[in-house]
User: Fold this.
Amino acid sequence: GQNIDQPTEMTATEGAIVQINCTYQTSGFNGLFWYQQHAGEAPTFLSYNVLDGLEEKGRFSSFLSRSKGYSYLLLKELQMKDSASYLCAVRERNFNKFYFGSGTKLNVKP
Amino acid sequence: ETGVTQTPRHLVMGMTNKKSLKCEQHLGHNAMYWYKQSAKKPLELMFVYSLEERVENNSVPSRFSPECPNSSHLFLHLHTLQPEDSALYLCASSQGRRGNEQFFGPGTRLTVL
Assistant:
């Protein structure tokens, strides 16, 4: 199995930058994913890392360190619509098995 | 719209009922998944169907029974459920080994009385 940890809740100000951390322990790592989930809606894919380093995608960036079992999602120029839960998920060596963290609820305030 | 549809969107059932959840994907994917999402808990993978294999989470009770008649359709048959099974049930699909992301359906909100 997997052990995936992320903070339960964070608050940030509109226009600011926020970093959401995720740590994991896995018996066989094959990729880390970040999803966004607005209340009452399905998760939607944000980013994917399988090699160490930073992946940038517009206002969103995701970082991975496999040796440390650590990832973060960086959100820049926060907007009110970024208020959502952010889910960290690890795929194990079996390509079709995914394990999710409990999610970090991000509150963006004016 | 993600290309993954689920019906019904809401379901209320008694503990002695039998019901089925349906999922359909229009993306040409070859892997489909059932997840359970309970309040303040991680998304829990229940079942996976892909070209290569069917994967089960051994902690899922036998009162949940999946069926995948083809690569576009996935069912979750429910029988004699318990109140603690009340949750959001999400279906997802991906392109198996070549795909990096899963596309989720809107979910079925299940309440067991």
Observations:
- The interface with chain B takes residues 4, 31, 33, 41-45, 48, 50, 87, 89, 94-103 of chain A (CB under 8 Å).
- Residues 23 and 105 of chain A are 16 Å apart (CA to CA).
- Chain A is about 0% helix and 60% strand.
